[in-house]
C-alpha cells in the first residue's frame, strides 16, 4: 500500500502525519508527531517571522522529510496556517523551504483550514452523524465550525490563539491578576461573535490546547493518543486547571504531569479560550479529538474515494 504524509505548519507547532489507506478504505496512521517551533513568535508585534523561528522550522521540516523517506512515503502535502497568512515575509519562508527541502508549502485560507479540519473530525465514526460544533484552538487564531452532516458548514474565526494572547497579555510570571482579567475580557468579547451550539449539538475540540488539558486531567507522564482521543473534558475540569495555572510560575507549570514544557507558557491562554468558548456555546462538556488539519489534508488530497462529498462553507469573519 502507498504511504502518504501531511505536514501542518502552524503558529506554535509543526505536525507530521504519515498514513496509508487500508483495505477498509479508511486512513490508518503509521506515524504522527509534533514539534514546537513557535513560528509565530513575536509576529503580532513585528508583523514578520523572525530569523530564529524560520531556521528552526525549516530544520524541523527537513527532519520530517528524512522520516518520510525512511518510512517509504511516496507523496507529501504541506500547508501553512495563521502565522504564514499573517506574516509580511511569508514568501521568504516558503522560498526557503522550497530551496532547502524541495517541498512546496501551500498557505491555505482560514476557510480552507476549517473545511479540512471539519472533514477530519466528521469522518470519525464516533461523530459521523448529528450536529457537530468543532472548536479548533491554535497558536494564532481559533475557529468554531458548525456542521450538521450536510454539505454546508458555518465557520467563525477570531485572531485569538494561545501564543498570540500570551505575548499580548501575560507578560509576568506568574501572570498578574490585571493581566489575566484583561486577557479574559478580550476573549469574552471575541467569543460573543459566535452563536450558541444548540442543545442537540456534539462539541469536539481539536489542537494542542485541548489534547494537553486532557493529558493533564489524566496525569499522563507521556502523551498517549489512545487515552486522549475520544476523551472528555467538563467545564469543571477546565475551570480547575485554569485556577491552578493562574497561581504557578512557569517552572512549576513545567512540572505538572501531562503538560509538555514547551506548552507550559501558553496553556493558560489556550485554556481560557476553551473555557469561554464552552460558556458561549452553552455546553458544560466537550469531547477531545487528536485528528486535525493534517488528517483532513490527507483525506482530501489523496483519499478522495473514501471521503464524503466536498464541503462548501458559508464564510463568516474571514
Concise overview:
The protein has 318 residues and is α/β, with parallel strands linked by helices.
Describe this structure in words.
It is globular, with a radius of gyration of 19 Å. It has two domains: 3-108, 2-Layer Sandwich (Nucleotidyltransferase, domain 5); 126-288, Nucleotidyltransferase, domain 5 (2-Layer Sandwich), CATH 3.30.420.150. Mean pLDDT is 91; it is low at 305-318. A seven-stranded mixed sheet has the order 10-11-9-6-7-8-12, sandwiched between helices. Strands 3-2-1-4-5 form a five-stranded mixed sheet, sandwiched between helices. It has helices at 43-46, 51-70, 82-86, 90-101, 110-122, 162-169, 177-191, 208-218, 225-228, 235-247, 250-253, 267-281, 293-301, and strands at residues 3-9, 13-21, 27-36, 73-80, 105-107, 132-137, 142-147, 152-158, 202-206, 232-234, 285-288, 312-314. By secondary structure, it is an alpha/beta fold. The chain is built from 13 helices and twelve strands. Strand 6 and strand 7 (142-147) form a beta hairpin.
